[in-house]
Specification:
3 helices, 164 residues, elongated, seven-stranded antiparallel beta sheet, 23% helix, alpha+beta
Amino acid sequence: MLVAATPLLAKDEPDLAQPAVFKAVIDCKAIADPSARLACFDKAVTALASAADARDVLVVDRATARKTKRSLFGLALPKIKLFGDNDDEEIDQIETTIASAYDAKDGMTIFVLPDGARWKQTEGRYTYPKAGQPIVIKRASLGSFFARVNNQAAVRVVRLPQSQ
């Protein structure tokens, strides 16, 4: 599947080529004759709509990209420029509430967030988490993360994949 977030992409990103069906729509702007330009737009928009219906092209706005990046916070993903990543837009922490919490087989707590993300405490004192309490998860050094539950002392956590 080809994914394109063209409104989101920076224009100076050479490795993020726009898909041909989107570029065809943009290229129609250069046609001087109004009837030819309209015919070009009709043809290009039909092709773009077909590609979107087939899920060959996906247009994502900045707000959706930020929401998606936030939901992926803590997962080890390859460094790709899918969301037009800039260093100044890196997510270093999330602040939310606990949807639920339970103990894993090893006795460590698993925090479930409202978006379904699951974080497991790996060390630190017991936090006695309850649904509705605030939680702040911050990126730490060397790819680690710390969570503060209900303004208590931070504990080390790790993001669990969805399949566990």
